[in-house]
Structures are given as structure tokens and as C-alpha cells.
Fold each of these.
Amino acid sequence: PVYMVVDTLITNTGNEAQVYPDLEVEFSSLEGKLIARHRFTPAEYLGGEVHSSDLMPAGVPVHIDMVVDNPGPAAVSRSLTVHANL
């Protein structure tokens, strides 16, 4: 399989630390047709010195790398949705 890395920053804009969210990446065609979707839990996208049991600090950008199957050349658009873990 061929993989690609989705590289992004997320920031907790709240006033206090909170639980890391799930992140959902979607790839779409030029016509808006959904080609691929993957939902990542904090345990899947956090690494290094940050652990999924840690709280996300307020106001500090967190660098995220998510490895996904390459959706192919028809995927010309990408979106990222944040799902709160309450």
C-alpha cells in the first residue's frame, strides 16, 4: 500500500486544558464526492512526549501527523473535523 501523511496543527482555544479530541480526515473529488474518510483517536495520532491520557493545554498549538492510505489522484480536497471527547 501507498501511504501519505496529513500534517496539521490543532489548538485548544478554550481557557483551560481539556481532553484531546478525535480527528476525522475526509478526502473528496473535484465534484465533492467523498473518496476516503478516517477517524483518528488521540491514541492513534499522538506520539513522542504527548500521550492520549494527557490533557491538551489551552492556547498551545499541537503538531499532528496522521498516516492514511493514499486516496489517489481523484482526491483533490481534504477536510478535518474535530470531534470532542467529553
Amino acid sequence: IMIRRSSTHIIRNTDQLLGTFVQPIMFLILFTAVFSSAIPTGNISYLDFLMAGIIVQTIAFGSTTTAIAIALK
């Protein structure tokens, strides 16, 4: 219930909504441009590692925002 409330608040607040959706896209573009040729990954694509990291990072940042919103209410 608390996560649903926090999610509806994020959807209504434009600043948080843009941050939630734009930040992972920005990190994907940034790290692909900067590190894709600098880090050798062998036969596995660099994007496989990058996408896993960005998904975990997005979940961690989102849970922090939700936890703070729950704690303040």
C-alpha cells in the first residue's frame, strides 16, 4: 500500500517523474559512450554488463526515494 502511494506521488510530481525515467537513459548513453571501448569484456557484450548494472542502480535509487517518502509520512 505504501509503495503504491509513493508511486502515485512520483507520477504526479513532474520533477521526480523526469528524474526516475531520464536518469537511467542518461547513464546508459554516458557509460556506453565512455567505457564501451575502454573495458575489455571478452566474448560477452559490454551492454550485457551495463544493462544489469543500470537496472540494479535504478531499483536502488527508486527504493531510496520510496523509503524516504514513507518515512516522512
